[in-house]
């Protein structure tokens, strides 16, 4: 068996696209005759506190599904304070260095980025002609931070650009989850070996529900995911026209209290907040809805929300409100409707044009069938192991 180490900031029992992506990668490699081990912080995301079973521990090692998981100490925080968030990244970087000093590291290492500083630490300390370092880039930092308003074009931003460039140069192979990420990397390093590795799902898919009655002519739109600044769900709640829709929300995050307060103080907004539920339960709930919405507050170059592929597997029609490459995927595979990112008038216009006659069982089955054919994780993994 080939040994491979995966270094990541996120891993189950943490929830979200990042932890799911790495878990499916680890599981897929293990099933293809790789001896997989994971280096990750003690679970803390998205609450910003170490999960109850792991509190008071400096390190925790376990074996789950034949994968060895080393969980290292981190100063956990989800604060909006930039210093505290930086401290959290640096603390995990120190834990990584400590681990590197006292443990044998395999010849193949997969490193998740972002966070940039964590990836930099791993690449800097593990550089070796005899070791293959594979960088898995899921978002383009610091560029994404600039587009989100997290950074300004200052000395700090330029420093992070140099860190980004160092990471790309010192990786032997770069996995990018979008064509835009690959293009960005190739613009800096034309000869760098790259591989398009989409965040395809892997779960038991329930069949679409054949028929649902529409109450008062309204159809039900659902959002499920992180209630963070980038998603802009609080603004979405305020801007939607509820004349023919009811909005249902699942998830947790920085905007949760604001959304709960908005619902409580505005009875005219037809919104139902369900809180956070486990993923396996969420899938059974999602197929009860007519349509889902995938929003981003601003277009983020390189970003393709993994929800696109997950919801396609559920046969759930989508309204995509994020711009960029996601628009093209929705249109190419006929997965739903696209509204201009940031243009809430256009979004409401698109919603008003959707007929309940379009949200039929046959359409949902076509979406699911397309997903099984075009977003196949096993086929993608079989191609990847030839590169690794």
Report the end-to-end length measured between terminal Cα atoms: 13 Å
CATH-scheme architecture of the largest domain: 3-Layer(aba) Sandwich
The largest sheet is: 8 strands, mixed
CATH fold label of the largest domain: Rossmann fold
Poorly predicted runs are none
Q: Care to count the β-strands?
A: 14
From N to C, what is the helix and strand string?
EHEEEHEHEHHEHEEHEHEHEHEHEHHH
What share of the residues does DSSP label as strand, in percent? 15-25%
Number of helices: 14
Q: How many discrete structural domains? A: 2
Radius of gyration: 21 Å
What number is the mean pLDDT? 90
- Would you state the CATH class of the largest domain? Alpha Beta
Classify the helix fraction into a percent range.
25-40%
Q: Give the spatial strand order of the biggest sheet.
A: 3-4-2-1-5-6-7-8
**The CATH homologous superfamily of the largest domain:** Glycogen Phosphorylase B
Question: Structural class given helices, strands, pairing?
Answer: alpha/beta
What's the overall geometry? globular
SSE inventory with pairings:
Elements: E1 2-7, H1 17-31, E2 34-41, E3 59-64, E4 67-72, H2 82-102, E5 108-113, H3 116-126, E6 132-137, H4 143-148, H5 155-170, E7 173-176, H6 179-188, E8 194-196, E9 219-224, H7 233-239, E10 245-250, H8 256-265, E11 271-273, H9 279-286, E12 291-295, H10 307-313, E13 318-321, H11 325-332, E14 336-338, H12 344-353, H13 361-374, H14 377-387
Parallel strand pairs: 1-2, 1-5, 2-4, 5-6, 6-7, 7-8, 9-10, 9-12, 10-11, 12-13, 13-14
Antiparallel strand pairs: 3-4
């Amino acid at each position: 068996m080939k040994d491979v180490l995966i270094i990541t900031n996120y891993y189950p029992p943490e929830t979200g696209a990042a932890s799911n992506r790495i878990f499916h990668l680890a599981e897929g490699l293990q099933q293809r005759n790789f001896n997989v081990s994971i280096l990750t912080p003690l679970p803390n995301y998205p609450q910003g506190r170490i999960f109850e079973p792991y509190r008071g521990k400096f390190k925790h090692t376990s074996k789950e599904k034949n994968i060895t998981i080393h969980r290292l100490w981190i100063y956990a925080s989800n604060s909006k304070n930039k210093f505290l968030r930086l401290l959290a990244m640096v603390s995990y970087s120190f834990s990584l260095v400590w681990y590197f000093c006292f443990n044998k590291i395999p010849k193949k290492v997969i490193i998740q980025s972002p966070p940039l500083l964590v990836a930099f630490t791993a690449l800097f300390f593990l550089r070796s002609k005899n070791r293959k370092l594979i960088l898995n880039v899921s978002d383009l930092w610091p560029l994404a931070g600039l587009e989100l308003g997290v950074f300004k074009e200052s000395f700090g931003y330029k420093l992070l650009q140099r860190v980004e460039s160092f990471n790309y140069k010192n990786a032997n192979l770069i996995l990018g989850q979008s064509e835009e990420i690959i293009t960005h990397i190739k613009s800096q390093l034309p000869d760098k070996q790259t591989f398009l590795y989409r965040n395809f799902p892997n779960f038991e898919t329930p069949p679409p529900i054949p028929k649902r009655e529409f109450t008062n002519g309204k159809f039900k739109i659902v959002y499920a995911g992180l209630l963070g600044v980038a998603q802009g769900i609080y603004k979405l709640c305020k801007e939607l026209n509820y004349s023919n829709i009811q909005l249902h929300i699942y998830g947790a995050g920085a905007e949760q209290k604001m959304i709960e307060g908005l619902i409580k103080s505005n009875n005219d907004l037809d919104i139902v907040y369900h809180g956070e539920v486990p993923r396996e339960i969420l899938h059974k709930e999602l197929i009860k809805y007519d349509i889902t919405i995938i929003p981003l507050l601003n277009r983020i170059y390189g970003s393709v929300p993994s929800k696109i592929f997950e919801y396609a597997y559920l046969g759930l029609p989508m309204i995509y409100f994020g711009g960029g490459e996601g628009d093209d995927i929705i249109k190419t595979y006929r997965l739903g409707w696209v509204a201009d990112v940031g243009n809430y008038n256009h979004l409401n216009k698109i919603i008003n044009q959707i007929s309940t006659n379009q949200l039929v069982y046959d359409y949902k089955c076509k979406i699911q069938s397309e997903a099984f054919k075009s977003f196949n994780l096993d086929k993608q993994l079989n191609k990847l192991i030839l590169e690794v």
